[in-house]
Amino acid sequence: MHSVIQAGDTIADIMQRAPVAQLEARILIGHVTQLSRVQLITHSERQLNLAEAQQLSRLFEQRLAGEPIAYLIGEREFYGLSFDVTPAVLIPRPDTELLVELALQYLPPQGRVLDMGTGSGAIAIAIAHTRSDASVIALDVSEQALVIAQGNAKKNNAQVNFLRSDWFSALENQHFDLIVSNPPYIVAGDTHLSEGDLRFEPVDALTDHANGLSALQIISQGATSYLKPDGWLLMEHGYDQAAAVRQLLSENRFEEVQSWRDLAGIERVSGGKKSRP
Ligand code: GLN
């Protein structure tokens, strides 16, 4: 038997027989029928038509094959905003909201912010959406990612200037009050890369194909030339990289070098202030 879902099945039937977790089934049925979470309950006797049944069967199969829910519905919430996602960009993580919180804290009024490796644009857009006084530039090496990010800025009514750049390469002589980044930091060959959602995400956004620190190192070093005196650099990193990142920051003469813990209590973001000349 290939397809468990047929035209004429009601939402209630399908919820009972769904081959995936109930929460996921609800999200996928809602996506196919365009019904809200409440409507799925109040319209539980609504029958699926043939096209909906076929689409839902396919989504269940894809989910069973491990594809992330966010890619299946093309969307993920981050910082209270909705972001379009495709396999060209990393799925925004709740952990990364810590980086946004800190950025908002360290950004002076009318500040200039640079987001390096913006992907879906989640960090830059969350900042710009919250702080309309800020001037936000976001860059990525991936043209495909920039298309998604631009769409997300528009969708969320956020003013962000996007730039295609391999780290600092396309930046002119300009200076920022704050540089933020969630760069690829997973070590090459880490088993997480071949497990769960990560298998479906863009590998170049996850790993530096080296020791996990090379992008963090490039950014720490380059940022010293692109920050104003007293400007801050804040970077997300892996659960076991905080000490190494603090060392990179100290080697590059950052001051007030420190790390912050995410909701799980893990040191997830490290940063420092550019020293005065
Ligand atoms: N935090 C992500 C994970 O562990 C990795 C994101 C990244 O490499 N920047 O899945």
Largest sheet: 7 strands, mixed
Radius of gyration: 21 Å
Query: In what order do the strands lie side by side in the largest sheet?
Result: 5-4-3-6-7-9-8
Query: Which outline best applies?
Result: elongated
Corresponding CATH architecture of the largest domain? 3-Layer(aba) Sandwich
Poorly predicted spans: none
Which secondary-structure class do the elements indicate?
alpha/beta
Mean pLDDT: 97
CATH class category name of the largest domain = Alpha Beta
- Give the name of the CATH superfamily of the largest domain: Vaccinia Virus protein VP39
Number of strands: 9
Gap between N and C termini: 71 Å
Question: What this model shows, in words?
Answer:
This protein has 277 residues and is an alpha/beta fold. It folds into 2 domains: 11-65, no CATH class; 80-274, Rossmann fold (3-Layer(aba) Sandwich). It contains 11 helices and 9 strands. The protein has helices spanning 11-17, 22-33, 37-42, 50-64, 69-73, 97-106, 122-130, 143-155, 203-206, 214-226, 242-251; strands at residues 75-78, 81-84, 112-116, 135-140, 160-164, 176-181, 227-236, 254-261, 267-274. Strands 5-4-3-6-7-9-8 form a 7-stranded mixed beta sheet, sandwiched between helices. Strands 1-2 form a two-stranded antiparallel sheet. Helix 8 (143-155) links the parallel strand 4 (135-140) and strand 5. The longest helix is centred in the first third of the chain and has 15 residues, at 50-64. The chain is elongated, with a radius of gyration of 21 Å. The model has no long low-confidence stretch (mean pLDDT 97). Bound molecules: glutamine. The site of glutamine has 8 residues, from loops.
